[in-house]
Amino acid sequence: MTERTTEQAPSRSSQDENSAAGSSTIDTVTEPDPARGRSHGSPIQGRGERIFRGLTSGSGLLVVAAVAAIGLFLLVQAVPSLLANNANFFTSPVFDTRDAANLNFGIRDLLVVTLLSSLFALAIAMPISLGIALFLTQYTPKRVSRPFAYIIDLLAAVPSIIYGLWGIAVLAPALLPIATWLSTNLGWFFLFAPGNLPVLTGTIFTGGVVLAVMILPIITAVTREVFSQTPRFHIEAAQALGATRWEVIRMAVLPYGRSGYIAGSMLGLGRALGETIAVLIVIRAATTPSGFSLFDGGYTFASLIASAASEFSQPLPTGAYIAAGLVLFVLTFVVNAIARVVAGGKVNG
Amino acid sequence: MAKRLDLKDVDIYYGDFHAVAGVNLSVAPRSVTSFIGPSGCGKSTVLRTLNRMHEEIPGARVEGEVLLDGEDIYNRSSDAVAVRKTIGMVFQRPNPFPTMSIRDNVVAGLKLSGVRDKKKLDEVCEASLRGANLWKEVSGRLDKPGGGLSGGQQQRLCIARAIAVAPDVLLMDEPCSALDPISTLAIEDLIADLKKEYTIVIVTHNMQQAARVSDQTAFFNLEATGKPGKLVEIDDTEKIFSNPTEQATEDYISGRFG
């Protein structure tokens, strides 16, 4: 170490002479004082650097550890119940844990209801969010779009219990005519086939619409943010070619914001998959298995677990619900992974 | 193709701010006119009024006449979108559509005009890329995204895109300021070629460039911050750089200010 610094010292001073001849400002900038660097700056800087790096990587690792711990917890708690299960976990539509000595539980219907309601919600919310985001970023001046955006953000702040109440008390009756029309005219299509409920309210259809309203602000917020960051020079490129407003959107804004839009939608899907209380209130329980119709009732993973939460006293039945939770946990991972693949390496063009 | 451009008493405002005052100038077909002047003097602003790009800034408005072969581009029957289809523009920063292929970039303007015939599009694509001196470099990878080219190539791609629609006038807003000297040379050579077919107006901060590429040079200046920019002098490039009429021009080109 000392040898190197003494070797460097002469070469530095010769450099000093050279640069001093050229420009004095440059050499004061580029030449750190080696003596000062050794005695004060570098050890303190080094220690601070180490502490800071330790803190940041520690926080990073903590997140990974937390996720792994949750997964592990779910797995450990679920395995004994899965081993004691008398029904096929993946294909059985029943979820019966009343008798701890004879567990019969499967996730078929939970998976169907969860996916059906969430994807239906996504199908409604995605185009509307896209429209709102384009409207706010491309068609309105900032003065108007800002308060408008606040209102949409407010939608995200409404507690989900309120959505549940609104869904069952207001929305369900209001949707009844539409549901009736779909059921009578498009009943041949499996999504609108007669379901396992005696009525057309409180179905996956109703729940999906409620979920759509709930995830709308999330998708809109992310999409709006990405669209508003479309580089000016991309937009100008299209404008200078004589593109109309819509053509500018198609040529510059959408390609730039596509991945952000998908990412926002997946965020919304994640929320829909895990939504508990609103779904529990809105979607009625059914006694027969689901038939892939939007007019079915039933439980999602989250609503089933919530509905049974008061009875978690014995470990084996509780483990059955934890197993269901584990599937939901994995499902959200899969959704995220798919989102990443779809958004791909083409993030922001 | 290659029309004449006349500006008569053009005043440009941004809201209450009077940005440029009283510009009168003429640009002959198949010639290169360069706008020079210190930053903030309004030369880019004037350029942007020539294809109504300035209208994208809220509150911007123009008084006076901008005549393209005698026809005012600001008259009521023509809208900005139509004007921009016939007056092409190349920007300071190369801006190909990053996710579009090279081919789609070149023909983007034609597609906007409703041309769908694939054979025609391919022909124009090749002709425009040849016209922009880029064909040899990209002919084997027309399906690759335009964002993958080097800066100089991207700028020539943007020029190809601008000339693909056979514009009446080609506007260039400091087209070389983000490029290295070799790419700059390539663009300057290209401008000399394009001059045979197009009317070109170029804004540049580089006075040597103005001297090299242009037939006539316009010097813009502003008296003080907050005052509107003005066209001080417009004349043959040779005259501006050897024996300008105005003292301010002399001071600027000899490096005494700006």
Automatic annotation (TrEMBL), chain A:
Statement: the UniProt record of this protein carries the keyword Ubl conjugation: no
Main location: membrane
A single Gene Ontology CC term: plasma membrane
Entry keyword set: Cell membrane, Membrane, Phosphate transport, Transmembrane, Transmembrane helix, Transport
Membrane topology classification: Multi-pass membrane protein
Alphabetized GO MF terms: phosphate transmembrane transporter activity
Transmembrane intervals: 60-83, 110-136, 148-168, 174-192, 199-222, 261-283, 290-309, 321-343
Pfam families assigned: BPD_transp_1
Entries under PROSITE patterns matching the protein: ABC_TM1
Segments for region (Disordered): 1-45
Family: Belongs to the binding-protein-dependent transport system permease family. CysTW subfamily.
Protein name: Phosphate transport system permease protein
Organism, as annotated: Actinomycetospora succinea
TrEMBL record, chain B:
Domain of life assignment: Bacteria
Domain named ABC transporter: residues: 5-247
Pfam families: ABC_tran
Gene Ontology biological-process annotations: phosphate ion transmembrane transport
Keywords: ATP-binding, Nucleotide-binding, Translocase, Transport
GO MF annotations in UniProt: ATP binding; ATP hydrolysis activity; phosphate transmembrane transporter activity
CDD domains xref list: ABC_PstB_phosphate_transporter (cd03260)
One Gene Ontology CC term in the entry: membrane
Full protein name: Phosphate ABC transporter ATP-binding protein (PhoT family)
InterPro entries xrefs: AAA+_ATPase, ABC_transporter-like_ATP-bd, ABC_transporter-like_CS, P-loop_NTPase, PstB-like
Source organism (scientific name): Actinomycetospora succinea
